[in-house]
Amino acid sequence: MKILVRGARVHNLQGIDVDIPHRALTVVTGPSGSGKSSLVYDTIFAESQRRFIEAIGPAAQRWLEVLVRPEVDRIEGLLPAIAVAQEAPRVQSRSTVGTLSELHDLLRMLFARFGEPHCPACATPLVLRSPERLATELLEGPPQRLLVTAPLFPRPHPDPLMALAHARKSGFVRVLVDHVPRPLEGEWASLLESTPSRIDAIVDRLEASPKARSRLLEAIESAFRTSEGIVRIVQEAGPELLFVERPICPSCGFAFPSLSPRSFSWNLPEGACPACGGLGFCEAQANSKKQKRRKSQADPEESEEEERPLQTLPCAECRGLRLRKEALSVHWSGRSLAEILTMPLSALAEFFASSRQRLFAPSPKEREILCHWLNEIEERLSKLLALGLGHLELNRSSAQLSEGERRRIQIAARIGANVSGVLYVFDEVSAGLHPGEIAEILPLLFRLRDAGNTLLLVDHDLNVITQADHVIELGPGAGRKGGRVLFEGPPALLATAQGSRTGPWLSGQRLSPRSPHPPRGILHFGPVRFRYFSDFSISLPLGQLLLISGPSGSGKSSLLEALSASLEALLRGQKPPFPLHKEGHLERIVVIDDRPIGRTPRATIATALGIMAPLRELFASLPEAKARGYDASRFGTHLPGGRCEHCAGLGFVRIELAPLPEATIPCEICQGTRYARETLEVRYRGHSIADLLAMPAEDAIELLSGIPPIATRLEALRWLGLGYLPLGQATSTLSGGERQRLRLAREFSRSATGSTLYLLDEASRGLHMEDLALLADGLDRLVREGNSVIVVDASLRLAPIADCIFELGPGAGPNGSRLLAQGPPHALASLPTPTGHAIAKALHPPAPPPHSGAFGPPEAAPTKSQIRETSAQ
C-alpha cells in the first residue's frame, strides 16, 4: 500500500507524481524553495485535513468552503494525518516546558480531583472527605478502637463556654478538654480552670471493624453536623486525624474555593496570580530610550522588529510561581504543584514511580481514573527522558530553551498517543540537534513506524536521510527552477543518482575549509554565573569565524544571550551585567537568530529588507500618481487610503473553524493584493505595486536595477539563495533558516564598515547543503571585510570553515555549561568525544566513488562592493 500523489501543482510544483509507502519512514529533501513544504504540508497534509472535515457530515459544509482542495489530479491511499508544525511554537511569556509537553494539563486534572488543599493562611491540611469515603479509609486499616469527636473550640464557637453550652444542648454527655475526657454534668463551667486550647464533643467510641460500618458512618455524619463540617478521629494506636467535609480551615476559618483544572492554570483568571496576571514577573522597564526614539522616528512600514523588555523582576506575591496562593497550597502525594514543576524531569519520573505505593482512591472507579492519569504522565515523561531532556524542569520558560530542546519537546508531545494507521508529518526533526542527539531521536521514530504508522519528514540532515526507508528529492533549484522530482527511491541509490543535488554530499562532498583569518583582538568574558554557568570564563578572538557547539541544553544559547547583553551594554557605555574585557576595535553587535521578523501579518520580505519605503516613493513619483494627488503613504498597507479596507491591507480574512484552528482565505475584494483598485491603476513599467510585491526577488532585480537602494538589497538576497522569495511574502511564513538569511542579507546590503560582531544562533537550521555552502561564503565574506562572526550551532555542519571551535558540555543542564575544549577543527577532531567524532567525519569524509560525479567546491559569492557595482551597472 502506498500514498499515490498524481499531478501535484501547488505553488511551484510542476505537476509531479510521487509514491509514499505505508508503514515506512520517508524523507523529502532538496534545496530551500524547491517545493518540499508545498508537497508535504500544502498538498498531502492539507488534503488529509480537508477529507477529515468532509467526513464529519453536513455540519462541516461551511468549513469545506474554506479548506479548498489542493491543486492535484488525485491522491490515493491517504491516511489521517498528524502534523508537527513547520515552525516551533512561537516563544511566549506564558509558555513553559509543562505547557509545550502538555504535562501541565495532566497535572492540573490530577491536582483538581485528587489534590489535598492546605490553608494558605496557616498551612493547616484540609483533608477533604465525605462521610462514606472517610468510613471506608478508616475500616481499611487494622482493627482498633476509635474515638470520633466534633471540634467545637476554637472553631466553630469562639468562646469555650459557648462551645460547652452547644455540646450540652446537642445532647452530648462527654467532651475532650485539651485531650482530657470530661463529663458534662452539674456545673460544667467548673471544668474550665483556665482557657483551654481545644474542646471536642465526644460523639462515639467504637471498634473499627466492618460490622461497625453503619455506626461509624452515623458518628461521622453527626460530628460533621455538630462542628459545621469538621471531624477529628482519635486512634488508639496512631496519630489523631482531622478531616473536613467542606474546604474551610478548622483553625482560622479560611474558606477554600472549589477546585477545578482551571484553578491550576496561570492562563486563566481562576488560577493566575492576581499581582502578575500569571506571568511570574513584572517588567521594570519595557524599553530603553534608544528603542523608543528609534520606534518614533522609523517608518511604520519598516519598524517591524520585536522589542524586548530590558529587565524583569520576579513577582513578589507568587515568587515567580505564576499561580494563586490557593493553587500553590494544594498537595498531592506530599508535594505541591510548585514543587513538582521545579523538579528535573528525571527526578519527577522517580517521584511518580514511587508515589504509586501511596495511592488511595475511595472507589475502584476513582482508582482506575487515577492510575490512567498516572500512566499517561509516566509515558510522556519516559518519551522526554528518551530524548535526553531529563535535565529540564516543567516550569522552565520556553524563552530559556534551545531550539533543539523546543523541537524535541514538540516531537514528544505529538507522538504521545498510542495510535496506529496514522500519517505523521514532521518538519526538520534534526533542527538544533547535535549529531549524537539525532541518533537518539531516530529509534523513537522507528518505534512509531513499527507500530503501524507512516512517517513523512522534511529534512536535510544526511544522517536522517541515510536512515530513511524511502527518499524523495525535489529541485533542482528554488521557485520556478524547482518543483520537480530529482530522485525517488531507497537512500542507498541516492549517492549515485544522476542530477541529484543531495547525492554528491552523501558520496563525499563537503564544505571546503577556508584560509585562516588572523585574529584582530580578543574578548575576555567571565567569570559568569548565569543559569547553569558557574564561574564560567571564555576568551573569544575577534576577526575570526568562531563556532560554539555542544549538545542541546549545554549552555550555547545561554552563552549567546549573556554575551550579547554584556556587549550591548558595553558599547552603550553602560556597565555590563557580566564581566567583559575587550582588546581590539569593535563598533557594534548584530544578533541574527530565527525569531519572528515583525509583530504583524503585514511584515513582508520588502519591509524586512527596508525597501518598502523606496518602493512607495518610486510609485508616488510617477506622473499618474502626481496627477491623482497620491503621496507615498497611498502605497502602504498600514494606513487607510490606498489599501483595501475590507481586509485592512492584510490580503486575507480570518475564518473561525472551532474546534479546529483558525483559517485564512484570500480577501474576496482585493483578491489578496492588499490594495484598493485605484491604487493598482498606478503602474511602473507596466506593473502595479501589487505586481512588484508578487514577484520573486530575482525577477524584481531586473525591473528595479536602476534604483540602487533597492537593487543592492535584492542582490544580497539572491546571493544568499533567497531569490525565489516574493517580495510581498509575509515573514511569518518563512522558515527559521530563511529568516536568518534574510537578516544576513540586510546586513550585506549595508555599507562595509567592518568592526562588527555578528552572533548567529543555529545558523544551519533548515538549510540544504547547497544552501549551507552559500551561507558559508557569506560568513567568510563578513570576516574578510574585518568583522567577527560567532556561530552557535549544534549540527557541526559548518565545522570545516571555522577558525576555532569551542565545545560546551559534556551534557545538558547541570551536567553541561562547561568549556570542554577549544581550538581549530583539526585539533578537536582528534578528541574521543561525540563532538570530536562529528568534526572528524566532517573534515575527513570517505572518498567518493568514481561514478558519483561529486560537485566541486561552491563558487565564491561576490563581495559587498561587487554587489553594489553590479547594481549600479
Describe this structure in words.
This protein is α/β, with parallel strands linked by helices. It has a six-stranded mixed beta sheet, with helices on both faces. Strands 9-8-10-7-11-12 form a six-stranded antiparallel beta sheet. Strands 25-28-29-23-30-31 form a six-stranded mixed beta sheet, with helices on both faces. Helix 11 runs antiparallel to helix 12.
Task: Describe the structure concisely.
With 873 residues, this protein is an alpha/beta fold.
Give the topology, please.
Blueprint (H helix, E strand, L loop, with lengths): L1 E7 L7 E6 L3 E5 L6 H21 L4 H4 L9 E3 L4 E3 L13 H5 L1 H12 L1 E2 L13 H10 L4 E9 L6 H10 L4 E4 L2 E4 L15 E9 L5 H14 L3 E6 L5 E4 L36 E5 L3 H9 L13 E4 L10 H4 L1 E3 L2 E2 H5 L3 H11 L8 H23 L16 H12 L8 E5 L7 H16 L3 E5 L3 H6 L2 E6 L8 E6 L13 H4 L14 E10 L2 E10 L2 E5 L6 H16 L8 E4 L4 E5 L12 H5 L2 H9 L2 H6 L23 E4 L7 E4 L10 H4 L8 H6 L2 H7 L4 H12 L16 H13 L7 E6 L7 H16 L3 E5 L11 E6 L8 E6 L1 H4 L5 H10 L20 H9 L1
Helix pairs in contact: 4-12, 5-7, 11-12, 23-24, 24-25, 24-29
